[in-house]
Amino acid sequence: MNASRPEQTGEARLARRLGLGDAVLIGLGSMVGAGVFAVWSPAAHAAGSWLLLGLAIAAVVAYCNAASSAQLAVVYPVSGGTYIYGRERLGEWWGFAAGWCFVIGKTASCAAMALTFATYVVPDEWLQRLLALAAVVVLAAVNYRGVTRTARLTRILVTCTFVVLALVLVLLYTGEPHHHTSAPTSAYGVLQSAGLLFFAFAGYARIATMGEEVREPARTIPRAITVALAVAIGIYLLVAIALLRTGDPASTTAPLASAVDGVGAAWATPIVRIGAALASLGALLALIAGIGRTTLAMARNRDLPAWLAAVHPRYQVPHHAELVLAAVVGVLVLTTDLRGVIGFSSFGVLLYYAIANASAFTQPADQRRWPRAVNVIGLIGCVVLAVTLPWTSAVVAAALLAAALLVRRFRTGRAGSARS
Length: 420
Fold this sequence. Notes:
By secondary structure, this protein is mainly alpha-helical. It has a single domain, classed as Amino acid/polyamine transporter I. It is 75% helix and 0% strand. The protein has 18 helices and no strands. It has helices at residues 6-9, 20-31, 35-38, 40-47, 51-75, 82-89, 92-121, 125-144, 147-174, 187-198, 205-209, 217-246, 255-262, 269-300, 319-335, 338-361, 372-388, 391-419. Helix 8 (125-144) crosses helix 14. The two termini are 28 Å apart. It is found in: Cell membrane. It comes from Kribbella pratensis. Keywords: Cell membrane, Membrane, Transmembrane, Transmembrane helix. It is a multi-pass membrane protein.
């Protein structure tokens, strides 16, 4: 069974303009964003001296998820990611659940990226909220103008982020190591740290959700996902080792800036803040693009209002979906806090990837690139990490998913009664 292509149904198509380099950079822009500057503190607080084990667990789960996503994207190279994979492999309800988890989880991620950007730029809370709102409006406008502009700006932001990270790593590895006292840890704490660190890995989904805009998707998407994830894992490992070597990342909300200051390079602290701000903007830009494409796919199948399936006749982007997304994220940055949206986002995205792994498990032998054990490990890992997250975030996300499923049940029931 194959997913319906827009050209087969007469719907407007997105333009295939992205090559391998563009796809890798969009994935890196999503992964190597605010997480590499902000996620270490809560993760280290949970894992203590076992932070690297938490990182390893997160990386293994991320690899399994990436393998499943890449394997599925070869067969279903259209916009929507696991929303499409779940529909085709498991049924419409599973696809709807995946799409809804992705949209709500990544909408929360957009708010987290915007708030992180503003936090590094201005000290006052309300100025932070207003600046975050401005960032959302500006980057939504960039996405509105077309995916090639998104890829071009992402390339610039990712390059700046890598330059700053390279400077930070040189300073930390050439500085004197410091002894520190780690927070107490447990098996649960290690798993919770892995769940928090997963927030920084999840960007490769953006590559799969943009399958309709990638040239030669069957070849490009698996390669782009693999390369982007491998680079991100390498960067995070270097950063984690450097932080543990030079101080206690659990003791500060800005561990990279504190670590640089601790090795006698206070002059570099403003540079680190600029790097964090640019990384957050890069992640936000890629997130807006990915959510718009999943919303487009859901609207095409009437799982969301059909109005959201509109593609701009000139810029060839899902402009209605991106306008609604910008409005919702704008409300979130004015009313929520960073910690809450990160936990909420992680829960939704882990459920999304659990469905991706289950979908890949059902693929026949001629469609497989990895053994089914990879899918099983990824599925179990996603569920385990999800339940270790703060319970308030999990309950709210689960309640929203249940409400969405009930609404869909009501709508499909009414549609069935009308036909009969």
